[in-house]
């Protein structure tokens, strides 16, 4: 799974599998990432210009950790929480 960044949720919480298609070719695929429950740090009140990557950089020390903020807010995508006035923030991983 070298196509994923070392902080990727797919590298941490998914499984790489391989299947053989009808023509006998090996096809790689990745299961959905099953993110374990996260502990809540608190909430962040969003204002204009507060992007999730910047919020993640501030609270999680990882701008690519925006997916953790989406997950703790029960959103499948970042866009699903783009207009929320407050977003829950998970505790930084050790």
Q: Which series of helices and strands comes N to C?
A: HEEEHHE
Find the count of extended strands (DSSP E, 2+ residues): 4
Beginning-to-end CA distance, first to last residue: 23 Å
Estimate nothing, just give the exact number of structural domains.
Answer: 2
Number of separate helices = 3
Please give the share of residues in helix. Answer: 10-25%
Shape: elongated
Structural class designation: alpha+beta
Physical arrangement of strands within the biggest beta sheet: 1-2
Major beta sheet summary = 2 strands, antiparallel
Radius of gyration: 16 Å
**Low-confidence sequence ranges:** none
Average pLDDT level = 89
- Binned strand content: 15-25%
Quaternary state of the chains: single chain
Question: What's this entry about, in short?
Answer:
With 94 residues, the protein is an alpha+beta fold. The protein folds into two domains: 1-34, no CATH class; 40-90. Helix content is 22%, strand content 22%.
Task: Give your account of this protein's structure.
The chain is of the alpha+beta class. It is 22% helix and 22% strand. It is built from three helices and four strands, in the order H-E-E-E-H-H-E. The model has no long low-confidence stretch (mean pLDDT 89). The two termini are 23 Å apart. It has two domains: 34 residues, no CATH class; 51 residues.
